[in-house]
Amino acid sequence: MTKREREDTPTHKLLYFDFPGKAEAIRLALTHADVAFEDHRFADRAEFQALKASGRLQFGQVPALEVESNGKTVVLTQSAAILRYVAKLNDSANLYPADPLLAARVDAVCDLEADAFVGVRVSKYKERFGFGFLNEDKYAGELAGVAEALNKDVVPRHLTNLAKVLEAGKTGWLAGTPEPSIADFVWGPVLDSINNGWTGDANALTAFPSLRTFHARFREIPSVKAYYYA
Ligand SMILES: N[C@@H](CCC(=O)N[C@@H](CS)C(=O)NCC(=O)O)C(=O)O
Questions:
Q1: What is the pLDDT of residue 24?
Q2: What domain range is 155 assigned to?
Q3: Taking the mean position of all CA atoms in its chain, how far away is CA 9?
Q4: Ligand 1 pocket residue status of 61, Cβ below 6 Å
Q5: If you average pLDDT over residues 201-228, what whole number do you get?
C-alpha cells in the first residue's frame, strides 16, 4: 500500500456569509474541479464573530476552507491561496497552469481584481480600514466625490486594463489560458456584482463589450451553469 493510498481523502467545509462576496469564486472553482464540499453559510454575523473570537481564523477573516484529513483539521484562509489549493486538488480541471509564465499571468489577473476594487472596498466597509469617522454626516460631500472618482476613473481604468489582457490573450479567458483558470473564477462573480450595482454603477460594463462577452461565456461554463440553474 502506498503512502497516498493510506491517506484519507480530505473533506472540505467552506465558511462564509450567506452571499456571494469573496466566497463565490471558491464555491464555483470547487464545483468546477468536482471537489465535494460543505457550503457552510453563517446564520448571522454573531456566528462569524464567535468564529473570529475562537482564534481559528489565521487573519480573522473569511472565506475560510476547513480541510479535514487523517484526523487533522487545517483552516485555510485568503481567497487567492484557497483557489490555488483547489486547483491543485484536481489537475485535470486545469484551473492553474503548470507553465510558470502562464501561472504568473493568472496571478497578475487575480491581483488586478484586488487593485481594481480596493477603493470601492474602503469606501463601502470604512470601519474595517480605519476610516469609520467618514460616516459622519459632515463628510457626505467628500464621499460623493470619492464615489464619482471611483466610478468615472478608478474602476473604468482597471476594467480597461482587464479588457486589454483579455483581448491580447485571444483565448476568450482573462489570462490567455486555453481553459478557464482561477483568474476567470475570481472575476466572473465580481462582474455579476458590478451588474448588481456593487460598485455604485450597474452599467459599468456597458463600455466594455469584450468583458461582457467574457462574462456571458463564463456563465455558460457547464459547471457554472449547473451551479446556478441545476
Ligand atoms: N484578502 C482576503 C480578504 C478577506 C476579507 O476581507 N474578508 C472579510 C469579509 S468579505 C472579513 O472577513 N472581514 C473581517 C471582519 O468583517 O471582521 C481574501 O481575499 O480572503
A1: 98
A2: 100-220
A3: 25
A4: yes
A5: 98
